[in-house]
Structure formats: structure tokens, C-alpha cells
């Protein structure tokens, strides 16, 4: 099947209550076996220490200095300076009684201290645990207690939130270290609860440059990453040092085979959250290759300015970011004169045809790259050679646009926290992989498992089914939850819950989600049944179907109003018409949307779980229309098919309103 995968096992039929499964595939670059980690690598610390020895004076971590409220040029710490700082912080951790195997929380935005804290943990064989609050109001408190975090590195602006939850976290947490300064008041608050609180400089003074570090093993737990993904409490995904290293080395192998590996000349722009696995892997890869990492200011208003000042060569984004970039560029093109628009379209079509013929990025249209597309390239700083997209599927029209206009290689991938970030990636310069997530990484074997209840057959001529994975980058289990681990790891295969379809090229396309959980374009998981149960508490409705997908950043819904309530609203607001016509009334729709979101706020739903549009349906979801099961459970694929035009209209209206 295709030129980029090889079959290593045949499929099997259904038996003993288990669904059928398709053949097992590997990437062509792993046809003789999955990638092995060299014996001299015991942990990601080896990546860092080797780069320090090779490039001690190369710029490693940089940020813009703020003076009089304005950001200036990037100032840098060299690899040697970061190494020395890491040794001091690690030594100070030991002085505070933090031992190998203990847990260290890291809570804050991307900055040099985040990476120094991470490397200090790795050097001391301490498990680092990213803390972040997008998993819910009590997530930080839950993670500290569940992971038994004994020390936490915390951004200065996050001191108040962590001190607020501190009374419920003191059974394990004994040390807090600010990335910046600490006020006397904050120190007193912590000390009253038996917790020591230090500024970054104060804590570094406790340590020294002791290079006598604890021994390390590949099987050590490198990090515990908490993720939502389902209803209920966050799950702690255990990732070993072996998994972390294998992911980085596989990425390097694929770049070596298909494009160009990272070098000490490369510069990476750090703005995707370091609390998520995607950016951790990217920055660890840069460290492995001795590249430089420049951090954004943390303000979306200055994102483009940071890019232009830094001039990165490697840029990673998620679909929501790329969608904003696409929209901004298209708005400027639309506002330009007829001559410029015509020239752009001619250049676009010419380069697109050449890419479709198989020409590499630099060969497709050097003339138009310089004449027409260079301004777009300059918007990213002018030097980007490699652009990556992950976290959610990239819409095909945006992927095509970026490939044509940005004058660099673009690769889209698919991964989960449980697979230590990417487990599939599209091959650089292979245009037919557009619209897919590519082929398995060289550490992974993949197969599809049939989902008969959804009509997906892994053994059909067009194989479709749940994506199942095995290999060296997979997680070790969910922390303290062997029951949840057993639910998703069956017979050695990790069941992702995502439904894929093999393409003739050997690439995989994500087409559905097995469970009623999906990811929005910004990477946030939505447990839709849980959300619907909250909205159902609104007394003005009888039924609701909430919809979202990986290409959109917000939710919409189809709602069956409570007839009497809507008619009472109409009478009180001098709106005329029968129930059916009221359901089409714009004011009625706005009223219902406001009331639903009021219910959501009352029950503490998060911002991305709020609705941006509703369609009012006068008729109940019925068995006669095949919209519900005999037990009145929503049949989501059928609902989408039935209300497709309504959903498209809701998204269109919401975007126009925002614009």
C-alpha cells in the first residue's frame, strides 16, 4: 500500500467478541525494524549535555528585554550558561530534600526558566509535572495532590493561584520557587502553611555546580502529563525517558531521510504551550541539535512582532493559529487592487501546479517566490524553512495555501499525549499527502480496528477503523489508574479512540472520533455528553445536540425549545407567530443562546465550552427521522447529516458576527 509504508502483519477477522483488525503497517524507513535508542543514551539529559560540550557558546534560550514598557532585542543565554544554571537549580533541589523519583511541578508560560527547571529535573532524575489550569478550576490542586508534587517552579503571575490552593496541597508540596521575584507577603502566606517560597535568584544561590548527578535509566519516568480527553478528573500520562528520547530521535531520522535535520544555525520560535507535549518535544529536539530557542512575550498582540524580530527558521503552530494567519493574508489580498490580486492568483496557480507535479518547494517557483510570496515569508521573519502543524487536523485549503505561499516545507502530524506527541507525520515535499496526517513515525506500528457500530470496516477496500498503536514512544500507563490503562491498552495495542482511513499512498486520514469526545482547532478536548447534560438543565429546552470539530474553535448546537416557555417569551416581548415561526425568529434564537450560556456559566463551563450559535428545532429529535436510538440516545452521525446545512450556517453567522 503506497511507497511510504510496509505491511508487517496480516489483518485478522472478528472472533471471541473482538472486532476485526486490518494489517499492521510501519513507515518505509523502519521496514527492517523500529528505531533503536543508542546504548549511550540513558535519558534526555544526554541530549543536553552533549550539545553543551559541542556548542558551549551557541545561543540557547532567548527572550526580549522589556524597557519602559517596550520590548527590545532578544537577549540570550548560551548553552554553557544554561547548563551552569541548571546544575545550580538541580543542586538546590537536592538541598531542599528533593530526591530521584520525586515529582516537581512546573507552572507558567514559556520562558527560559521553564526549560531550565525541566532540565534540572531530568538531570536530578526527578519527574517533572506540568501544571496548567485549562483542565478546570481545580485542576492545579488536583494534579499537585494526585502526582504528589513536592516542589513547584512557578511563574510570578501564578503565585497567587497556587497560594490560593496551597491549604489543600501541603501534604506533599514543601517548596515553591518563583520564576521571578517573591513578595514578603507571599513568603509569609506560604510559611504559615509550612511551605518555603523562594525567588529564582534566591533558590539558585542554594546550589552549586556539582556535576555528580544521580544515575539514570531509560525506564525512569521522565514526566507525568495530565490531560483531559474524557469526562471526570484529569488523567496523568506517564512518559518514560525511553519514550521521550525515541520520539526526538524518530523526528531526527525522518528529517534526515526526507529534508534536513536541525543544526546549531536553526532558531525555533517558542509560543505553543510548554505544558503540552508537542512543544516539549520540539524544544527538546532543538536542544538535541544545538539549535536556539527564542520565546514569545506571551501576548498574542505582539506575536507577529516577535516573529519578525527573532527571524526563526523553524515554526510550529496549530490549526487555529494557521487559520488566523490565512484569514489575515486573504483579507489583505482582497483589499489590494485588481492588478495585485490577478498577479497573486497567477503566481498561486502556477506554483500549485508545479507542486502537484512533484517538484520540491524550492524548485516549484523561485521567480514567484521572490516576486509575490516573499512578503508572506517576511511575515514569519523571512527565514522559516520548516513549518509544522499538530494538535488537530489542518483544513486542506489552509494547508494548500501555506504550502504555496510560505516558501518552506510544511509537514502535518497526528499524535496524542499517550504517544509522546507525534505518531504519524506527512513526508516533506510529498504533495499527495496533503489533507492527511502522513505515515507512522519510525518508532510506531499502526493498524485499524473495525468499529461495526459506526459502520467502519478495517478490512474493506477502503479500510476505516479505530487507530491502534504499539511501539517505543507509547506511554507507560495512567498514573494511579490501572483501570483506565486497561481500557485503552488491549493485547499490547493502544486504542486511540480516533477513527482513521488509509489512503492509497499509505498515508492516514483522520475521519471521526469513536467516543463522544473531540478536539477543537485550538487543541482543547470537549466531552460533549457532559456539556450537553449541563445545557439540558436550562428549563427553556427539551433537547439539545452540541456540535464541534477539529477544524473549528467553538461550539454550536441544535436545540428543541420548551414550547410553552418560548411562547411566553414571545408574548412578553410582543413577538408574533406560531411555535414553528418563533423557532426561526432571530431574537428568539439570541434569547435562547443567552439563556443557555447563562446556564453554562452557572455550572462553571469553560470558555471554549460555551455556545456561539443555536438553531431552534420545533420538532423533537425522533426515531422516525433516525436521529435517536430506541432508548433516545443521540445518533450523532445521523444528526450531522440531517442538520449539515444548519451547522454550516451557524458557523458562518458566528464568524461574520465576530468579524
From TrEMBL:
Residues 55-479 form the AMP-dependent synthetase/ligase domain. It comes from the Eukaryota. The lineage of its organism: Eukaryota, Viridiplantae, Streptophyta, Embryophyta, Tracheophyta. It holds the Pfam family AMP-binding_C. InterPro entries: AMP-bd_C (IPR025110), AMP-binding_CS (IPR020845), AMP-dep_synth/lig_dom (IPR000873), ANL_N_sf (IPR042099), LC-FACS_euk (IPR045311). It catalyses: a long-chain fatty acid + ATP + CoA = a long-chain fatty acyl-CoA + AMP + diphosphate. This is Long-chain-fatty-acid--CoA ligase. GO terms for biological process: cutin biosynthetic process; phenylpropanoid metabolic process; wax biosynthetic process. Transmembrane segments: none annotated. Residues 531-572 form the AMP-binding enzyme C-terminal domain. It comes from Sesamum indicum. Pathway: Phytoalexin biosynthesis; 3,4',5-trihydroxystilbene biosynthesis; 3,4',5-trihydroxystilbene from trans-4-coumarate: step 1/2. Its EC number is 6.2.1.3. GO terms for cellular component: endoplasmic reticulum; membrane. One of its GO terms (molecular function) is ATP binding.
